[in-house]
Protein: DUF1349 domain-containing protein
Organism: Microbacterium invictum
Amino acid sequence: MSTSIFPRPIDWAEGRWTHEPAAVERRGDELVVTAVEGSDAWLRTAYGFEHASEHGLIAPLPVGRAMEVEFTADFTEQFDQAGIFVRIDAERWIKSGVEFCDGELGAGAVVTDRRSDWSVGAVPEWSGRRLVIRVSRGEDAITVRGGVAGGAAGEAMRLLRLAPFDGAADAAAGPLVAAPSRAGLTVVFHAWRMTAADASIH
């Protein structure tokens, strides 16, 4: 009888930053990350600008695997955000998680293939809580789920996005922080782990 190797904790040292944060501190098993003011990721669509200054701590994500991060933060300013960044290259990537927009916390994703899109839904009930975001990589897609970590009955992980993603490409993923509109956003990452990809799409 075989024993699953998952979930497997990922050490923070296994990742490399897409862009260095303003500050990074180890506190026991946790990683505390402070974003640079103006950091963000967006490519061309609608707004007429390009941003490639997000703080993504990424490690390889193969097909058939999933990555999860757990975190808490005080999201209070426009577009404060945290979650997971998945990257193939500068023009093919996904950022998924939570974002403070127009006075309310939202959960969703930006999927980029030469141009970015954005999907988001309000989750005010997640404010101030320990959250988990998971991305599962299939042969041709990424499935994004999120929710309250260790959620009670009725707080199951919800589907945030199912997006096309090149299964033949090398990709890496991990914790994400960005703060487009202010200095001082600090996110506490409690856990980073590899798991088996979700069997179910929905």
